[in-house]
Amino acid sequence: MAAEHLVRAHRAVIGEREIPAAVRIRDGRIVAVEAYDASAGEADVVELAIDEVLLPGLVDTHVHVNEPGRTEWEGFASATRAAAAGGVTTIVDMPLNSIPPTTTVAALEVKRQVARDQVWVDVGFWGGAVPANRADLAGLHEAGVFGFKCFLLDSGVEEFPHLEPADFAAAMAETARLGALMIVHAEDGDVIAACAHGPAYDGFLASRPEVAEERAIALVIDTARDSGGRAHVVHLSAAGAIPALRAARAAGVDVSVETCPHYLHFESGSISDGATELKCCPPIRDSANRDALWAGLRDGDIDLVVSDHSPCTADLKRQDTGDFAEAWGGIASLQLGLPAVWTSARDRGVPLADVVRWMATAPARRVGLTGKGEIAVGADADLCVFAPDETWVVDPTRLHHKNAVSAYAGRTLTGTVRGTWLRGAPIDLADAPRGRLLRWGE
Q: For the Amidohydrolase-related domain, which residue ranges apply (predicted)?
C-alpha cells in the first residue's frame, strides 16, 4: 500500500460517536480524522461498503493463551489468528494455565521467546501473584508486565496457588508501592460447595452462589482501600456486587470491574443439562442477573467487557458424560466476543459506540495501553471493519480456536468482522504474522 492512505467510512465510531469520517494513516499511525469527503491528496484510498462500520481494533485484556505447557489447549498462533478474525488487535495474556506460569522474570522470558514470531496481533503479558513470589513482583513490573493476576480461591491448576487474605494484603501492598494494577479472581472458597456429579446445570450453579463473589469483592475493596493500591475485579457474574463497587469508587477506592460476553448473552434458564460447553467460573446466572449486568454497563458501574477466553481440549469438557463436576470451567470466545455482545446489545437498543467503549477504549485505558482502543490522532492505526447487520450461524470447525468446542455452536449471531488492520495494514492470515510483543510503559 502507499506510504499514506485514507480509509473512508460512511459510519465510523470515533470519540464515542458514530459519524461519517475519513481516517488518514501514515507509518502505521493515525495522523488525521477528517470529513468523509476530504481530499485524498497522494494517499491510497480504501472505501468501506455502505453496510460496514469502521471501529478501532478491540482490546482484550483477559486471554488464556496457555503456551507453553498446555499448547494443545490453545497457543499464540491459534489465539492471535482467532483474535484477528474477531476484530481484536491487542490481547493481554494471562499468567496461568501455561507451564511455567508467569510468576518470575525467567518464566516471562520463556513465554516471550515462545510467542515471538508467531503472533498476528499485538500481545502483552500479565504477571502472576502467588504466595511464594512477592519478591519477584518488582522484577516482573520492571520487565513490562501490565499488572498482576491473583486468585482468592483454588485456581484449578496446582502450579498457580491462590492467595489467602493475609498474602493478598501483602501482595497488594507491594503492587501499590510499584503503582501496578492487581487483577483478582474474586470468589470466596469458604462458601462454595462441591459440585455434585452429574449433568444438572442447576446443581453446578447452586454450588457457586452469588454471595461467593460478593464476599470476595468486599475483601478486594477493603484491601485496595487499606493499601492505597489499584485493583480490578475480573469476570463479574454476580450483579449483586455492583452496589458495593459503586460505593467504593464514590469513596475514592481505585477499583474497576469487567464482565464477559457469556454473562451478557446467556442465562441459566436456557442452559440444558449436560451442556458443559457453558461451564465457567463464576457461573452464568439467571436472566434477572443478566439484565442487571447490562444495567451496570449502561450506568457506568461495570467498566469493560473482555472475553476471559479460557479454552481446553474437547475431552476436558466431558461432553461424553455431561458431568459438570468433572468438566473444565472455561469458555472460548476470543473470535466471537464482538458479535456475541453486539447481538445482545442491538436487541436491547444499546448503540454500537457503547460496545466499542466497553470492548476497546476502556480496556486499553485501564491497563495503560497507550495508542490503542480508539480512532484518534496519534493512535496506532488498528482498525476493525464490521458489518453490524449481517447474521450468521456459528460453526466451531470454522473458527481459528485450536479446539472446536464452543458455547455458541449453532447459534445465530448478528455482526460480522470483515477485516482487521494492524498498524495501518490489513491482517492477512495467509501471510507471515507481524504482531509485536508489548511492554507496559513503552
A: 53-424
